[in-house]
Specification:
- With 101 residues, this protein is mainly alpha-helical.
- It is built from 4 helices and 2 strands, in the order ββαααα.
- It has one domain.
- The chain has a two-stranded antiparallel sheet.
- Helix 1 crosses helix 2.
Length: 101
Protein backbone atom coordinates (compact mmCIF):
# COMPACT_ATOMS: atom_id res chain seq x y z
CA UNK A 1 0.00 0.00 0.00
CA UNK A 2 1.33 3.43 -0.92
CA UNK A 3 0.77 6.66 0.88
CA UNK A 4 0.31 9.67 -1.36
CA UNK A 5 0.41 13.21 -0.05
CA UNK A 6 -1.72 15.71 -1.96
CA UNK A 7 -2.05 19.43 -1.48
CA UNK A 8 -5.51 20.76 -2.32
CA UNK A 9 -6.25 24.44 -2.90
CA UNK A 10 -9.75 25.20 -1.60
CA UNK A 11 -11.62 28.49 -2.15
CA UNK A 12 -15.02 29.18 -0.59
CA UNK A 13 -15.42 25.48 0.18
CA UNK A 14 -14.69 24.43 -3.42
CA UNK A 15 -11.64 22.40 -4.41
CA UNK A 16 -9.84 24.37 -7.12
CA UNK A 17 -6.77 22.29 -7.85
CA UNK A 18 -4.70 19.42 -6.42
CA UNK A 19 -0.90 19.42 -6.38
CA UNK A 20 1.82 17.00 -5.39
CA UNK A 21 4.04 19.66 -3.77
CA UNK A 22 3.32 22.35 -1.22
CA UNK A 23 5.35 24.84 -3.27
CA UNK A 24 3.07 24.42 -6.31
CA UNK A 25 -0.07 24.65 -4.17
CA UNK A 26 1.17 27.83 -2.48
CA UNK A 27 2.05 29.41 -5.83
CA UNK A 28 -1.41 28.62 -7.22
CA UNK A 29 -3.07 29.99 -4.09
CA UNK A 30 -1.06 33.22 -4.38
CA UNK A 31 -2.08 33.49 -8.05
CA UNK A 32 -5.76 33.15 -7.05
CA UNK A 33 -5.25 35.85 -4.39
CA UNK A 34 -3.75 38.12 -7.03
CA UNK A 35 -6.63 37.44 -9.45
CA UNK A 36 -9.13 38.27 -6.72
CA UNK A 37 -7.37 41.57 -5.99
CA UNK A 38 -7.19 42.43 -9.70
CA UNK A 39 -10.89 41.62 -10.08
CA UNK A 40 -11.77 44.07 -7.32
CA UNK A 41 -9.43 46.72 -8.73
CA UNK A 42 -10.78 46.48 -12.28
CA UNK A 43 -14.37 46.18 -11.03
CA UNK A 44 -14.01 49.56 -9.33
CA UNK A 45 -12.89 51.13 -12.63
CA UNK A 46 -16.47 51.21 -13.97
CA UNK A 47 -15.51 49.21 -17.05
CA UNK A 48 -18.42 47.92 -19.08
CA UNK A 49 -17.47 44.26 -18.67
CA UNK A 50 -19.56 41.35 -17.47
CA UNK A 51 -18.48 39.75 -14.22
CA UNK A 52 -17.46 36.59 -16.10
CA UNK A 53 -15.20 38.53 -18.49
CA UNK A 54 -13.77 40.55 -15.61
CA UNK A 55 -13.02 37.34 -13.73
CA UNK A 56 -11.37 35.72 -16.78
CA UNK A 57 -9.30 38.83 -17.46
CA UNK A 58 -8.17 39.08 -13.83
CA UNK A 59 -7.18 35.41 -13.85
CA UNK A 60 -5.29 35.82 -17.14
CA UNK A 61 -3.37 38.84 -15.82
CA UNK A 62 -2.51 37.01 -12.60
CA UNK A 63 -1.34 33.93 -14.53
CA UNK A 64 0.92 36.13 -16.66
CA UNK A 65 2.06 38.54 -13.96
CA UNK A 66 5.72 38.39 -15.00
CA UNK A 67 4.98 39.49 -18.56
CA UNK A 68 2.46 42.11 -17.39
CA UNK A 69 5.07 43.52 -15.00
CA UNK A 70 7.57 43.88 -17.84
CA UNK A 71 4.95 45.60 -20.02
CA UNK A 72 3.97 48.00 -17.22
CA UNK A 73 7.62 48.94 -16.80
CA UNK A 74 7.79 49.85 -20.50
CA UNK A 75 9.54 46.71 -21.68
CA UNK A 76 8.64 44.00 -24.14
CA UNK A 77 8.20 40.50 -22.73
CA UNK A 78 9.89 37.57 -24.44
CA UNK A 79 7.66 35.35 -26.58
CA UNK A 80 5.91 32.43 -24.98
CA UNK A 81 7.63 29.43 -26.47
CA UNK A 82 6.89 26.20 -24.67
CA UNK A 83 3.17 26.45 -23.89
CA UNK A 84 1.19 25.78 -27.10
CA UNK A 85 -2.06 26.81 -25.38
CA UNK A 86 -0.79 30.33 -24.59
CA UNK A 87 -1.74 31.89 -27.96
CA UNK A 88 -5.18 30.30 -27.66
CA UNK A 89 -5.67 31.68 -24.16
CA UNK A 90 -4.53 35.12 -25.30
CA UNK A 91 -6.82 35.05 -28.31
CA UNK A 92 -9.79 33.97 -26.18
CA UNK A 93 -9.15 36.77 -23.67
CA UNK A 94 -8.86 39.37 -26.45
CA UNK A 95 -12.09 38.10 -28.08
CA UNK A 96 -13.89 38.33 -24.75
CA UNK A 97 -12.75 41.93 -24.25
CA UNK A 98 -13.67 42.91 -27.82
CA UNK A 99 -17.07 41.20 -27.54
CA UNK A 100 -17.95 43.22 -24.46
CA UNK A 101 -16.94 46.53 -26.03
Amino acid sequence: MAIVVKYVVVRDGVEKMTFTTKKEADAYDRMLDMAETLHGFMGAAELDLSDEILENLALYLAEHRDQVGIILKGGTPRAQGSDPATPLKKEAALRAVKKSA
